[in-house]
Amino acid sequence: MRVGLFVPCYVDQFYPGAAIATLQLLEKLGVDVVYPKNQTCCGQPMANSGYEHLTGGCNKLFIENFQGYDYIVSPSGSCVLHIREHLHDDKQPELAKQVAHQVWELTSFLTDVLKVESLPSRFPHKVGVHQSCHGQRGLHLSSMTELVAPDFSKPGSLLNMVKDLELVELDRKDECCGFGGTFCVVEEAVSSKMGKDRVADHLKQGAEYITGADMSCLMHMEGILKRQGSNVKVLHIAEILNSEG
Amino acid sequence: MEVATKNHAELADIFNKDEDRVDWHDETLWWIRAKRDKSVHQLPEWEALREAASNIKFNVLSNLDIYLAQFEAAAKANGITVHWAADAQEHNEIVHGLLKEAKVTQMVKSKSMLTEECHLNDYLATHGIEVIDSDLGERIVQLAGEAPSHIVLPCIHKKKEEIGDLFHMYLGTPSNMSDPQFLTETARGSLRETFLTRKVALTGVNFAIAETGEFVVCTNEGNADMGAHLADVHIACMGIEKLIPNRDHLGVFLRLLTRSATGQPITTYSSHFKKPREGQEMHIVLVDNGRSVQLGREDFRNSLKCIRCGACMNTCPVYRRSGGHSYHTAVAGPIGSILAPNLDMRKYADLPFASTLCGSCSNVCPVKIDIHDQLYKWRQVLVKEGYTPKAKTVAMHVMATTLGSSTLYHAAGKMGRLTIKYAPFAVNNKLNPWYKNRDMPEAPKESFGEWYAKNRKK
Ligand code: SF4
Questions:
Q1: CB contact, 8 Å: A79 with chain B?
Q2: Nearest CA to ligand 1 atom 8
Q3: Long-range contact list for B37-46, CB < 8 A, 24+ apart?
Q4: Per-residue pLDDT tens for B251-264?
Q5: Ligand 1 mean position to B366 CA, how many Å?
Q6: B375 lines ligand 1 (CB under 6 A)
Q7: Helix segments in B344-389, DSSP class H
Q8: Are B99 and B125 in contact (CB under 8 A)?
Q9: A8 in contact with chain B, both atoms CB, cutoff 8 A
Q10: Which residue of A has its CA nearest to B376?
């Protein structure tokens, strides 16, 4: 099985640790992973701002870089959702469709494709999970409080395989953190307030770390934690699953 | 009104100046959403009900002309006078005409978001007609000189102390009274007087049944019945999308409506009106006001399925923290943000952007409207039609060029990291909206790409 590693632009630039952990974790699980080095961005920042018509360059690059792999795996639910829903190329529509269908978010890849049932990791801390909306509601990584359906969580069950890790329960299980891409600057007031409230829920439950399957939401909450001078840290779920503590 | 000149972000910023109020607003609405969750989880068939409702409405929208004609014929046969209004202006004129015919200058009205959409109260006021809103929440905002901030809970933005002050000012209650029981009794007393003296009553319509030509009005206070039963003339106003084909379908919607809205199993009063009683006149005004245009927009057609339960507002994390008035349109929240640009793209170009696209709205919607997908689609339309600030368009072009090229991307990335590292003041300043309440991420010494090149020689 050959897997192309898709590292979203802001993870590449600001959170290389999340990408390194993703790579190492996949390698540990016996997967042949390659990082196509000319990749940039999935195009979501433009598309969500209403400029989907400007994403042609990103789409073309994405297809160039990622065609030919069995799977494409990424540590970011929202970029994966964007590719799955919007990747297109008028010159080669079939290829674009095929590539879009091969993209997987890391925790669902581990759960549904690799069918991981145990992990050699240890993380002796209290951890709060942030269910990012695009991963949760868009990619169905976990059950949603609004729907009448059975309870499940792919990130949650993976974290439960980690030795000595204690998950905390939040008052609001799946409330949005308010990042929302350009929303975080266009609607600064509401976005910050949402982030503060989300962080407060984790702090109230005594979390030492906040984790999740989407670094962008974590970046938002980290910005707020740091501003508040908090000791609580954010870590991408790959970093916890990969840790040997 | 000043409100209309500011956009959602600016209005929400003002609302957020008082953080305690934001917390209180958020928690009140969250409590209602939690009640909704609890009550829907009691029905194992909940998702099937949503699916059924969505399909029934889909059928209605696909055959709207047929159902409207069927409804008109049946309603006429029942003795109801049917009027058609192409837009808000025509609607207001029709209502005004009926009031003139009845020779009255006062009217009692129960809740109708359609009349808010058409600004009926203002219109009638300029023609010397006094309207008293009989829904308690609407009466409160009316006394305050404000518009409703929520379609089901019109005065959800007001604390009970503020309501006490309003009643003290307008209804003569002692000052500093905030006991909800006392305030409700006072309002009731004053409204009773209104009900007894008004000859014309206007109500909204929740569901109109094509098969039988009857309509159903849902209220928790029974105020629609009080008004309609005591008046000589009953005027009901409805958007043309409120139709359902048969009586049988009603059960599906009545089960969904109030569970979604407030978590109650059913509305306290679901009143059926079929024909005027002896000596009474009954009129129904069927209003288009942009609905047939929206019906013609394939991507946004589904928004007409809306049964106005308000669940999408209660669940919306942005609505809860920005208040209904920040949407500067009659129907606030996620659904309002996809309905409003249909009426006026320029005026409401900001609304589809007032969302994180979290998708919770689509999940609670009892008729399964793809709300967050439509918000995304409106953004594309509004940008293409040129309703975005120039600066944003320029920035997006730069971004698209940079991200569309691997070489440019790597150069820019390095520069960005260097800027953060060696000149944090260049980004950590007041002009950067991110920095107002959040710190920037720390710049790592190398990107993942650089690390990979060193550590994995493939
Ligand atoms: S869009 Fe759906 S959830 Fe929102 S008010 Fe309409 S029916 Fe209710």
A1: no
A2: B309
A3: B37/A145, B37/A146, B37/B263, B38/B263, B39/B259, B39/B263, B39/B264, B39/B265, B40/A148, B40/B259, B40/B260, B40/B263, B41/A148, B43/A148, B43/B255, B43/B259, B44/A148, B46/A148
A4: 999 999 999 999 99
A5: 7
A6: no
A7: 360-364, 371-384
A8: no
A9: no
A10: A48
Q: State how far the Cα of A212 lies from the Cα of A128, in Å rounded to an integer.
A: 8
The owner of tokens 């929208």 is B61
**φ and ψ of A165, to 5 deg:** -90, 135
Residues of A in contact with B41 (CB under 8 A): 148
Identify which of B61, B307, B316 to mutate to test ligand 1's pocket (most ligand atoms within 8 A of the CB): B307
Buried b (16+ CB within 10 A) or exposed e, B308-347: bbbbbbbbbbbbbbbbbbbbbbbbbbbbbbbbbbbbeeeb
User: What is the torsional sign of CA B360, B361, B365, B367?
Assistant: negative
Q: Write the residue in B400, B409, B448 that is nearest to A16 by C-beta.
A: B448
Let me know if B229 is exposed, middle or buried by CB neighbors in 10 A (0-12, 13-18, 19+).
Answer: middle
pLDDT at B385 over 70: yes
Q: Which atom of ligand 1 lies nearest, measured to the CA of B310? A: 5
B332 lines ligand 1 (CB under 6 A): no
**Most ligand 1 atoms within 8 A of CB, residue of B111, B319, B335 to mutate:** B335
Query: What ipTM did this prediction achieve?
Result: 0.96
**Any CB–CB contact under 8 A between A173 and chain B?**
no
The average pLDDT across B135-146 equals: 90
**Six-digit token string for A110:** 């581990």
Nearest ligand 1 atom, CA B333: 4
C-beta atoms surrounding B425 within 10 Å? 7
Residues in a beta bridge with A122: A163
Which band of pLDDT confidence, cut at 50, 70 and 90, is reported for residue B2? Answer: very low
B231 and B200 in contact (C-beta within 8 Å)?
Answer: yes
Whether the per-residue pLDDT at B345 is higher than 50: the answer is yes
Which token pair is B229? Answer: 């039963």
Q: What sign does the dihedral A94-A96-A98-A100 (CA atoms) show?
A: negative
**How is residue A5 written in tokens?**
């590693």
Q: Which pTM does this prediction carry?
A: 0.94
pLDDT digits (tens, 9 = 90+) for B55-69: 999 999 999 999 999
- Cβ–ligand 1 distance for B307 under 6 Å, the answer yes
Whether B439 sits inside 8 A of A23 (CB atoms) is: no
pLDDT at B330: 95
Are B233 and B283 contacting, i.e. CB atoms less than 8 angstroms apart?
A: yes
Residue A10 has pLDDT above 80, yes or no: yes
Write the DSSP string, A23-60.
Answer: HHHHHHTT-EEE--TT----SHHHHHTT-GGG-HHHHH
User: Using an 8 Å Cβ cutoff, are B357 and B372 in contact?
Assistant: yes
* Ligand 1 centroid distance, CA of A33 (Å): 45
Within 8 A of A204 by CB-CB distance, chain B residues are none
Q: Whose CA is nearest to atom 6 of ligand 1?
A: B306
Q: Do A61 and B406 touch (CB under 8 A)?
A: yes
The pLDDT score that the predictor gives to residue B421 is: 63
Query: Cα B410 to chain center, whole Å?
Result: 45
Which one, of A113, A215, A107, lies nearest residue A158 by Cα? A107
Q: Give the model confidence (pLDDT) of A124-182 as tens digits.
A: 999 999 999 999 999 999 999 999 999 999 999 999 999 999 999 999 999 999 999 88
